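ESCALATION

Customer reports they have been waiting on this structure for their group meeting. Please prioritize. Original submission:
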Amino acid sequence: MTSIQMPQLGETIVEGTILKWLKREGDAVARDEPLFEISTDKVDTEVPSPVAGTVTKILVDEGATVPVGTALMEISEAGAAASGDAAASGDAAASGDGATSSGDAAASGDAASSPASGAAPTTEPTPEPSGGAASSEGSSAAPPPAAVTPPAAPAVPAAPAAPVAPAAAASVPAAVATVPDRGPRSQILSPLVRRLAKEHDLDLAQIAGTGSGGRITKADVMAVISSGGQVAPATAGATAPVTAPAQPMPAPSAGIGEEIVPVSHIRRAIAEHMLASTQTSARAWTMVEVNVDHLVKLRERIKATFQERYGLKITYLPMVVRATVDALLEYPDVNARLDGDNIVRHRFVNMGIAVSYDAGLIVPVIKGADGMNTIGVARAIADLAARARSHQLRPDEVQGATFTITNPGPYGSVASVPIINQPNVGILSFDAIVKRPVVIDDAIAIRSMVNISMSWDHRVIDGEAATRFLARVKENLETWDFAEDLGV
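Update from on-call: job pushed to the front of the queue and completed.
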């Protein structure tokens, strides 16, 4: 008997949610055939079977969130053998430690984990990302990680006593009132939960956790943020007010000409990330107009040769990435993040590319983009976008961006104001290239023009730096000769 457990899909992943069982008890399953879909706070993915056999028992219901290492189902390898050999008998041998299946985790959403970016879709009619971009290693599946048994959760030490004025205590919303002592609860917190709590000055010790073992989840923190309340410090011996259970909302009814569509978990994650970004950053916006006439002519001239030589369709996005990377290295405050009272400047560029796919929006990351030429960037974008749309991204591929680009141009957008992909302090939007009359040497001429804009966090960047940064991107796109860099 082989025990299938919740896989560890990334270093920071401590739990997952069963979205859908793809096999039922009694079903035959082949090796590497998908068993179920899971969702983490980074990506969604299908988990393949490590063995061939028959599903004998499902241990967790759909919609349940469980820690990494939890047994989810059992597969009898003897069941598969018996179907091909009537003489087979006896109990199936237990499969050691119950290997966990993982594979190339599929990415869908969150954008969010990943954090989803509020970026507009970005895609050209090529393998280039369309409202975001996604990546995963297509055919070569990563070896399944060993089963992980979660350690016993240590008890949370009592918070030190602190006097609380009666008026202040009364002002605390019921949703974020002091948590009564309910015994030990998990101290394992995801980086996202810690960051959100730090950014909104929340005391995690005072937030009731609804996750496994009392663990505080992102949804718990977002509920506190949405309520607009401040968590009160714990009071020694104080008894938390009891909150009356919320009354169930009546099921919505569709009127004439209306349709009720339940909010998907991906759409909910995107909504949470977008709302958190707008509540966190002081967003400002700047746009420049760029003459890309020579790039349009270059692409038309080399696209057939480039695809034949490299197996890729050449788009404008790799050129935009290269021009932006150069500007980020010149203006490090744009390639940064805010950490409390400190600005963390990155000496490398991990470029997030917003990609739209069937479930919503996701932002896979080109790691080490500052070390790539235009061909390398083009390959990375094509790979990430293809694997995002086939739900094959791994959790680590949708986090760690230092800056983000979104490309709504293929859909006809001429000016867009994207929401910043936290914890970045800027996101650049590349809109549609259109022919417009422009003045060149005091004469009117028709040129291929594009608007490039940036939403930026005024807590870290000022208007001058934002404008100089965009001017550098503009200069690069208008003056660089990409022909040699593209190998044609």
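Sent to customer with the following note: The chain is about 25% helix and 20% strand.
Escalation resolved.
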